[in-house]
Amino acid sequence: MTDVLSKAAPSSYRVHGATGEWEVIIGLEVHAQVTSNAKLFSGAATAFGAEPNTQVSLVDAAMPGMLPVPNRECIRQAVRTGMAIDAHINKWSRFDRKNYFYADLPQGYQISQLYHPLVGEGSVEIELEGEESPTKTIGVERIHVEQDAGKLMHDQHPTRSYVDLNRSGVALMEIVSRPDMRSPAEAGAYLTKLRSILRYVGSCDGNMDQGSMRADVNVSVRRPGGDFGTRTETKNVNSIRFVMQAIEHEASRQVDVLEGGGKIVQETRLFNPDTGTTRSMRSKEDAHDYRYFPDPDLLPLELDDAFLAECKASLPELPDAKRARYEGLGITPYQANVLTAEVETARWFDALLDQGAKPVAAANWVSSELFGALNRIGKDIAESPVGPGQAAELLALVADGTLSGSLAKQVFEVMLETGDAPGKIVEERGLKQTSDTGAIEAVIADVLAKNPGQLEQYRGGKEALFGFFVGQTMKAMQGKANPAVVNELLKKALG
């Protein structure tokens, strides 16, 4: 068997075979379910997890005489997605029929866009950790909209298969990349970034475990710098980790075949997540085998400037722009990347800043205290018991000296348990930090009196004991003394 070697940069990723190194060529076709309250050509609902065949209109079931009508919101979301990746938007596009028979395809064809897609060329910039060239641009060839098929269920009866048409007619964006990726890591970074963009835009929820985003993985191998080899397509991979595993296995498999004197057959394959392997499904059809032709029931889509302007104006601040803004506020690149990776986190953090929190202190607190607490209680940021307003109040109490860092941790724990505001907790539990010099001086005098041996050692030159006296003073004051004042007064007392 071959071994996969990952070198310093993902572009240098190679499969090491018996006869030398091979380069991997990767392209992805991502199917993203459009966020909409209806299907692409009907008004049927699209809720996940509904009872089988409860979200099926007469159009979805291909009843005689039923005609499709495009859903404006589905078109709008696809256009907004194209704009988010700086793609060319085609003002004129057309729907085609892709003809093939399958039991979960009632019409006997799928309505798609082959020759004139809604969205043309664009690009996605990916970030690569720990590399000399940390960014790479992946080309996107096109985005077209199409309807999904239904679902065959083979495990409901010992001798029969059942058909669920709930997904029949659901609107999909097929986002077709160029074969620009050269390693599983690059493919994973591309999918991660694309998912983030879709979620920011709101055009797809990105829930891969629910099938609303999945990828067809095209893989071929070649000698480094040589001509492209024959590719295979692994269908419907539904997690980023599985996509990376499928690439790694398929590349190694192809090298084994070629080095054994065989040929790669252009085919469709399936990925088995339990074994991390792929298996052949069927030989790959070319476009002409589907007998594409313009759908006679649908007029071409013609977009006017007003519609495009409205789509453009509706776009939110996207991940790259938001990350750059955060860095401009003094937040570290690493923290900015963490805070913008998921749209819910970015929205929560923006709300925190809107409440007046200082950016750097807020970023430090969110990435350490808040994330740590949420991980401990098993909640995501959308479920956080502490809202941005409460967090801003807590940070303000630290900034004005009311709370020390240790007291703030105590208050935060109570906030998580009770949902109370930090100011209320401070007052009710007497957790306010004190800067009363008289009270602190009295405690310091008592600490020195109780520790004559350590005092003598300190004055004899063992200056490391200064921390001991600070700790004893803070302990005696139950952590409520202002650390800066304690340090200042101790220096005076110790001479």
UniProtKB/TrEMBL annotation:
EC category name: ligase
InterPro entries (UniProt xref): Asn/Gln-tRNA_amidoTrfase_suB/E (IPR017959), Asn/Gln-tRNA_Trfase_suB/E_cat (IPR006075), Asn/Gln_amidotransferase (IPR018027), Asn/Gln_tRNA_amidoTrase-B-like (IPR003789), GatB (IPR004413), GatB_C_1 (IPR042114), GatB_Yqey_C_2 (IPR023168), Gln-tRNA_amidoTrfase_suB_CS (IPR017958)
Gene Ontology MF annotations: asparaginyl-tRNA synthase (glutamine-hydrolyzing) activity; ATP binding; glutaminyl-tRNA synthase (glutamine-hydrolyzing) activity; transferase activity
Catalyzed reaction equations: L-aspartyl-tRNA(Asn) + L-glutamine + ATP + H2O = L-asparaginyl-tRNA(Asn) + L-glutamate + ADP + phosphate + 2 H(+); L-glutamyl-tRNA(Gln) + L-glutamine + ATP + H2O = L-glutaminyl-tRNA(Gln) + L-glutamate + ADP + phosphate + H(+)
Domain Asn/Gln amidotransferase residues, every copy: 347-494
UniProt EC number: 6.3.5.-
Superkingdom classification of source: Bacteria
Pfam families reported for this sequence: GatB_N, GatB_Yqey
GO BP terms: glutaminyl-tRNAGln biosynthesis via transamidation; translation
Record key words, sorted: ATP-binding, Ligase, Nucleotide-binding, Protein biosynthesis, Transferase
Keyword Nucleotide-binding belongs to the record: yes
Entry's family note: Belongs to the GatB/GatE family. GatB subfamily.
Summary of the function given for this chain in its UniProt record: Allows the formation of correctly charged Asn-tRNA(Asn) or Gln-tRNA(Gln) through the transamidation of misacylated Asp-tRNA(Asn) or Glu-tRNA(Gln) in organisms which lack either or both of asparaginyl-tRNA or glutaminyl-tRNA synthetases. The reaction takes place in the presence of glutamine and ATP through an activated phospho-Asp-tRNA(Asn) or phospho-Glu-tRNA(Gln).
Assembly, per entry: Heterotrimer of A, B and C subunits.
Protein name per its UniProtKB record: Aspartyl/glutamyl-tRNA(Asn/Gln) amidotransferase subunit B
Naturally occurring in which organism (per UniProt): Sphingomonas panacisoli
